[in-house]
Design a protein that fits this description.
Blueprint: E1 10-15, E2 18-23, H1 30-34, E3 53-54, H2 68-79, H3 86-93, H4 103-112, E4 116-119, H5 123-131, E5 136-141, E6 150-159, E7 164-169, E8 172-178, H6 179-187, E9 193-197, H7 208-220, H8 224-237, H9 242-254, H10 258-271, H11 276-288, H12 292-305, H13 310-321
Antiparallel strand pairs: 1-2, 3-6, 4-9, 5-6, 5-9, 6-7, 7-8
Length: 334
């Protein structure tokens, strides 16, 4: 089935002015999500880091030359239970011309396996994830700012008393590094860090907007079933999440669960009754299920209530009126 006009994606952005909804058509730049903040010359506040943590049974893969990226990602995927061969993963992540791996390639590879990649936006979040039992993939600059030497490693623990960080790094398993040195090398790499988890499992430090953005990444990787699990997990944590309800509706629509999509969009409209984008998507789901007249009523309501999406609503109405086939075996309403 070909659909000329697709769903309108929306993304929740919080600000001091309230909750803003804007179109979300473009691919998220993962690097903009990673964030940068400052880790001091040791550990964060002692109230955050109190007890020694050393995660047991984190798989270790010794890296080959310049291939720390594939090795680090392989450790996290294996920790999640993936049976994989490192050479196959290397082909997805490693760039021979660069003699290294770019962050977007690592993120894309993890998503291809159906995992949610969540960026940590504060150094304190690293310790929060470790406390929850989640290893953290980090990027370090082991060289100088002007002469960088990039390196991926997996943080598996810390000792606040000794002020040491433990990493699977290079060819060394559970290597100890002073917190001061780790903080400097991590800061020179922009404090880039991620956790890789099953989509139904929320990071310990998850924030609503960042988690929804990570779920959108699964959608854009074509991992619809994984994205569905992520949005369901988001609603368990944030039952009134408008963005999660819209995302759930969009994914159910893509999976041809038009009744489920309608329920999700109607629940979103309970939170924002005059949102034209959601009305457009609800109309699409209704029409796909064969309920054209009800879909046209929803389009009319959207045109009355929300000028922002007028052109999209008009195009959707035109398509419905044109009586194009929406779904085989639908319940056509005349």
């Amino acid at each position: 089935m070909e659909v000329e006009y697709g769903l309108l994606s929306v993304f929740v952005e919080r600000s001091s002015m309230g909750q803003l909804i804007r179109p979300f058509f473009l691919l998220l730049s993962f690097l903009t999500l990673a964030g940068c903040s400052v880790l001091g010359p040791g550990f964060p506040d002692e109230r955050i880091v109190r007890e020694r943590v050393l995660l047991p049974d984190i798989p270790f893969y010794a890296q080959e030359d310049y291939q720390c990226g594939p090795a680090a990602l392989a450790m996290l995927l294996a920790w999640n239970g993936e049976a994989l061969l490192l050479p196959a993963l290397t082909g997805q992540v490693y760039s021979p011309s660069l003699e290294g791996s770019l962050q977007p390639a690592i993120v894309a590879a993890a998503r291809r396996y159906g995992y949610l990649v969540y960026p940590l936006d504060q150094p304190e979040a690293l310790f929060g994830e470790l406390a929850a039992g989640h290893p953290v993939l980090v990027l370090q600059n082991l060289g100088l700012t002007r002469m960088p030497r990039w390196h991926y490693a997996v943080v598996i623990g810390h000792d606040p008393e000794q002020k040491r960080i433990f990493l699977h790094s290079g060819r060394r398993e559970a290597m100890g590094m002073s917190a001061r040195l780790f903080g400097r090398t991590w800061a020179r790499a922009g404090h880039w860090a991620v956790v890789v988890l099953p989509p139904e499992r929320l990071p310990a430090t998850a924030g609503e907007s960042s988690f929804l953005a990570a779920a959108v990444g699964l959608e854009q990787a074509g991992q619809w079933s994984a994205a569905l699990l992520a949005y369901q997990a988001a609603l368990e944590r944030w039952p009134d999440s408008f963005g999660a309800r819209v995302g759930l509706g969009n994914v159910r629509y893509t999976l041809a669960d038009y009744e489920g999509a309608q329920r999700a969009f109607r629940q979103a409209l309970l939170l924002q009754p005059a949102n034209g984008a959601v009305m457009n998507n609800l109309a699409l789901a209704l029409a796909a299920a064969g309920y054209r007249q009800e879909a046209l009523v929803v389009i009319g309501q959207g045109l009355e209530l929300d000028e922002t999406w007028r052109q999209e609503l008009l195009r959707t109405r035109q398509k419905i009126v044109a009586d194009q086939p929406w779904a085989e075996g639908g319940n056509e309403q005349n």
